[in-house]
Amino acid sequence: MSKRIALTFDDGPSDKTIKLLEILDGFGIKATFFVVGKNLEKVDFNAVYSNTLAERKIQSPEKVVDNAKNFSDEELAANCNTLKNQLKSGHMIGNHSMTHPWRKDSQGNGLENLVLDDILKELIGCQNAVYKQSAEREYTPRFFRAPEYHSVKTIITKNNSQLGFVKICEAYECNDSDYDDKSYDSSTSAEHIKNKYIEAFKSENDCIVLSHDSPVATNLVKGVGDALNLLTKNSDGSFTYQENGVRYGIEFVRIDEYYGKHNRLAQGDFLLKGQRLSSSNRQFELVFQGDSNVVVYSPNGVAAWNGDAEIYKAIGQHPCQLKIDKIELTSDGILQVIQRNQPYVWKKEVSSFQLADNGKPVVTHINGTVEYV
Description:
alpha/beta, 2 domains, eight-stranded mixed β-sheet, TIM Barrel, 10 helices, globular, Agglutinin, subunit A, 22 strands, four-stranded antiparallel β-sheet
């Protein structure tokens, strides 16, 4: 039986990402990239944030890129093109904050030590940067990983109505850098990275691999490539790693598949503009577009279902009269759409809303009955 491995990459996009995508796409592996917003657009740090740079101590250690430094226009344009290529190839984009506040000492000067307003600006800033730079795809991250392992789960949970995260990804089982005895910088060897991947290949359980797609990760591409070249790809798309006569089965998944949230809304979940649900066979996507339309797209990009008629018929208003901001399945089973904080009931007594493998949205009611919408 194959274990599931989610390959995740923090700190990009960078000049390494395109070559990394070539390797992953060559193997048919979908990964998750937790991106930093300032890699996509410039930030006026002193104007945007209430804390000064000195107070935030945002500058990184000597061997790491200065987080208070903006990229050039050419670098930003290249990174934005990379983001579009990541989405086009079917990879998932996560939120890794806007400027990557860095913990420098035991007292902590990272994300959780900022004032609440600045924490939200860090998270919302990255959401907006990805949404804007993903262009016509209008993509908004649904998964968040904090820089440097900061735990801000309580803060985010209390303010999640503004953010729309499905999961705050604090855990990982395999890190390509051992922070206890080795800081991650350009001296981290390809051999070290490869060996960390082999640890994951041999793991008895499902695992998340954390790698760093940063400008200083000079050996990342070679390390990942060397590790994946040790695998044999099977006819069903899974992989096998063999060592000393022992065979290890592997299925690579995106982080949404790893957590099982890729094709359904459960009670308490919601969608914001730019977010989407995928069918479990990955052939269809339900997209909550920036124009408030809800559309299911087939693999060739053709609209297979348009929610305008269904949603607006159910709530009794013409599409021109209502532009929704949120689709929500409440904890008491109400599937509703929201405009300017005003809820409109779509379906009642619902336990889940998902996208079936035939591309049709499906409501499962609390009594177990299933209804196509």
